[in-house]
Amino acid sequence: MIKAHPLHGPNKLKLGVFSTNADGGLAITDVPERWTASWQDNLTAAQIADRAGLEFMLPIARWRGFGGRNKVREWSFETFTWAAALATATEQIGLFMTVHVPLVHPLYAAKALATVDHISQGRAGLNIVCGWNPKEFGMFGTPLVEKGYDQAAEWIEILERLYASAEPLDYEGSYYTLEEAVSRPASLQVPRPVTMNAAFGGPGRDFAAARCDYLFTTFSEMSDAGKHVADIRERADKVGRDVGVYTVAHVVCRPTMEEARALLHALCR
């Protein structure tokens, strides 16, 4: 019997590490110590977080990056293989994969996600992204659909039905058609690994409320946090679900507050 996923653990406040798989991480800066996202640094960071009892590692999915002098985030590790490798080198931390729905077929995603869930013994997580930078999508020749969250609803429905079905699956939707589709093994987590979605607009938050376990959001003032929590709880209540909320924070660590503020100023140049 597998253990509960770390995001279902006893700590009320769950902590994770975000975007280590991409050059620069969350800091777009020129400072010499900027995050280079080497594989060894990713491995070391994951093992430190694992030993410290943090609950999860969450990567971003990038293909092209933002360009500029440093070609920010052009260097990044693909998230399925990244998570699979880290799963063999850690023991308890949750490992997410970030997936662009329009770029990854749900049948492939189901197989890859279940593979990582088995390697990690039930520690896999899925961060569902429904749209992104048109230039990155253009590299694939894939235009953004008008109703991305409708496509995502079909995508996650297919994934769950593939895991649940004992027989080959036929599916006819607006975005996907499958004939006698099979994906074995199913994930260890039932009905599928824990899911997260970052959404700010109404349609996106309705999707997160109906289909995901957690909403990832951002805000500039702590006083705004309650508004985001109340919003997703209200949407989730309407469909009889309970959805958690995650956000992002920057940690600037130095021996004194003065040194920390000085470094923060340098990072923001």
Automatic annotation (TrEMBL):
Pfam families according to UniProt: Bac_luciferase
A molecular function GO annotation: oxidoreductase activity
Keywords carried by this UniProt record: Flavoprotein, FMN, Monooxygenase, Oxidoreductase
InterPro entries: Luciferase-like_dom, Luciferase-like_sf, SsuD_RutA_monooxygenase
Enzyme class of the recorded protein, top EC level: oxidoreductase
Keyword DNA repair among UniProt keywords: no
UniProt-listed Enzyme Commission number(s): 1.-.-.-
Residue span, Luciferase-like domain: 16-268
Protein name, entry field: LLM class flavin-dependent oxidoreductase
